[in-house]
Design brief:
Elements: H1 12-27, H2 34-56, H3 60-109, H4 114-124, H5 129-141, H6 146-156, H7 160-175, H8 179-203, H9 205-228, H10 230-238, H11 240-264
Helix pairs in contact: 2-3, 3-4, 3-8, 4-5, 5-6, 6-7, 7-8, 9-10, 9-11, 10-11
């Protein structure tokens, strides 16, 4: 490809990092080059900085700090967006995995080979499962074994369910047995795990709502103060002490929400 000849891609360390970023974007279903993503981040950072300059009207030293803060906010926002897209796509794939396994098991039981059974999933299901299983079939078309292609799927869509599927199919190919029955049992296991996860989500809903309120209350309160008490709002936005107070509040809010969400995490 032409873009692979770009100068910064010739450096081994930079090339490895770009490849890792490309893999992350692919897992998230974001089909953009890292260079395109960097351009979007730079544009967002510039827009945030210009907005802050118009709002705060800082001195040159503070303007430089705001530039760094804007770049960090833009980069952090992009990282959060990619992680959220990746998690959303992975969750959608895992939700489809039970049905995919039952389709593969049904195909195997009627006499289809494993590769042919995978085409049934492609025909019957939507993305992201359709895209990922189509990639597996495409890899087998160019000489890769279906078991190695399934291992690649477990790496691209990292979850306990996908790893169990890849390992179960590979072990069955080495030890023998009824693949259809194995896949049906695995589908039942995934169904039960999803039931437990739904129960956990229901039990932690109050805590997640509390984290949302904790995160939204300070900015709403600050907006209320600016609208009802202009002198206090001016002191908050246009004085050094106000900037320090805002910085402390942002850090404490982040730590509070982060800690609360970590407490609510339960690995099934």
């Amino acid at each position: 490809m032409v873009t692979d000849a770009l100068p910064w891609r010739a450096h081994p360390e930079t090339s490895a990092r770009l490849q890792a970023l490309e893999l992350t974007l692919d897992r998230a279903g974001i089909y953009k080059r890292p260079e395109e993503l960097a351009l979007y981040v730079a544009i967002a950072a510039a827009a945030i900085w210009v907005g802050l300059l118009a709002l705060v009207r800082p001195n040159p030293a503070l303007a430089a700090l705001l530039l760094l803060a804007s770049a960090g906010a833009s980069l952090g926002g992009a990282a959060w967006f990619v992680r959220a897209a990746r998690a959303r796509r992975l969750n959608a794939f895992v939700q489809q995995l039970e049905l995919a396994l039952r389709l593969i098991a049904g195909g195997v039981r009627v006499g289809l080979g494993l590769r042919q059974a995978l085409t049934v999933v492609i025909e019957e299901m939507t993305d992201p499962a359709r895209h990922e299983y189509m990639r597996i079939v495409g890899q087998t078309n160019i000489g890769m074994s279906v078991y190695d292609a399934l291992d690649g799927l477990a790496e691209r869509m990292p979850s306990n369910e996908t790893l169990m599927m890849a390992r179960a199919i590979r072990i069955q190919s080495q030890t023998g047995g009824d693949l259809g029955k194995i896949l049906e049992h695995l589908a039942d296991t995934i169904k039960e795990r999803r039931r437990i996860q739904r129960k956990i989500n229901a039990m932690t809903a109050e805590g997640r709502a509390s984290a949302l309120v904790l995160g939204l209350l300070p900015p709403i309160l600050a907006l209320f103060i600016c609208l009802t008490q202009p002198s206090m709002g001016h002191a908050l936005l246009f004085t050094g002490m106000g900037h320090v107070a805002l910085g402390i509040v942002v850090v404490l809010e982040f730590l509070g929400v982060f800690t609360l969400l970590k407490i609510l995490e339960v690995d099934v």
